[in-house]
Amino acid sequence: MGYDWLAGEGGKVTQVVIALASGLLGWGLTGLVLIAVRNSGQLAAPTDRGLHAVATPVGGGLGLIGATLILWSLLFWPISATRLLIGSAILCLAILSWIDDRAQLPPALRLVVQAVVIALIVFYLVPTTRLFPAIPFSLERIALWIGWLWMLNLTNFMDGIDGLAGIEAITVALGYALLTGLFPYQSPLVAFLPELALILAAASFGYLYWNWSPAKIFMGDTGSIPLGFIFGLLMLDLALRGFWAAAVILPMYFIADATLTLLDRLRRGAKPWHAHREHAYQQAILSGMTHAQVALHIAVLNIALIALAILSTMAPLPTAAASAILTLGLIKWFQTRDRPAI
Question: Mean pLDDT across the stretch 111-118?
């Protein structure tokens, strides 16, 4: 079974059924994780660098990623070697991150494992396909590897307030699914990614029930690291289909906020792996906005980015520029809001 089956006769009904099943499983598994973590007593205590006020369970991403992998495997049987490899990569990152959420692994160890996983996937999935034929092959592969590794980690950095990572997962995955549905060209990467995007988007709705402000459970690295890996996979597929502008536009808020903040911290000599509250969305919270208000502002932007990503198939450069203006405008507004007097 594959995307042709989803798009064929009865495909719309099938998509709705899969979405409902994904949402319910995401909701149910996250709820079970919440109970288990509460019983274990392993809660994230408030810190000066965090934005939550009460001790909260961490690891809800296990429900989201677990639901995605279970349905992606069971509903589309048999599992091909490529699907097994990608699923194993996601599972490996989730397990590593689950351990990190509880034992605080060294940053260097986490980064090395992530880098090796991505390198293996890049080598296996795109051994010869070119994104930018004008530059040397080795340089292109290094850039692809670094970009994917950054996408994985920036998603982790951006998972700092209630509902934000869930909103990003829903909008990026739905944007990808819409583009591949409107332009169903044969993927040069793998053919089953629209299924993955549909299941991820729906499972994220189920997860969001528990993570919406005030969050009952946080995603943790267990969810954000595999989520960043999936974002990179979906955006790579769009770029290989020729939709390079859409691949940049859909996750643009996360990319821009995380990258600009990192560059500013590096300029000031701050250690990039240390936790902080300097992202634009965090500054908006410190200015007095609620978690829900900030997440909804970004959700509205992301809906506009989906529309612009679709338009980018006809006019890549103008729509990419418009997306950047909208995104930077929201970031600037978040950063320049007056903070309440203490």
Answer: 96
CA distance 327 to 255: 10
Asked whether residue 305 is assigned to any structural domain, the reply reads no
Average pLDDT of 294-298? 97
Query: Residue 226 carries which side chain, given as an amino acid letter?
Result: P
- Look at residue 23 and tell me if it is in a domain: yes
3-state secondary structure at position 241: coil
Is residue 120, in this structure, part of any structural domain at all? yes
**Confidence grade of residue 323 (pLDDT, cut at 50, 70, 90):** very high
Query: Reduced to 3 states, what is the DSSP secondary structure of residue 43?
Result: strand
Number of H helices, E strands in the chain: 14, 2
Contacts of 55 (CB under 8 A, 6+ apart): 43, 44, 45, 46
- What is the percent of the chain where pLDDT is above 70? 93
C-alpha to C-alpha distance for 172 and 253, rounded to whole angstroms: 11
CA distance 328 to 237: 25
The C-alpha torsion from 9 through 13 and 14 to 18, rounded to 10°, is 160
Interatomic CA distance for residues 202 and 221, integer angstroms:
20
| For helices 61-74 and 220-240, angle between their N-to-C axes, nearest 10 degrees | 50
Q: Is the pLDDT of residue 341 over 60?
A: no
Name residue 20's amino acid.
L
This prediction has a pTM of 0.92
Range of the domain at 94: 3-243
Tell me whether residue 156 is in a domain: yes
**How far is 247 from 129, CA to CA, in rounded Å?**
17
The alpha carbons of the chain give a radius of gyration, in whole angstroms, of 19
Could you tell me the pLDDT band of residue 271, with boundaries at 50, 70 and 90?
confident
Q: How many domains does the chain have?
A: 1
Report which of 330, 290, 275, 310 is spatially closest to residue 46, judged by C-alpha positions. Answer: 275
Tokens 């988007």 belong to residue: 201
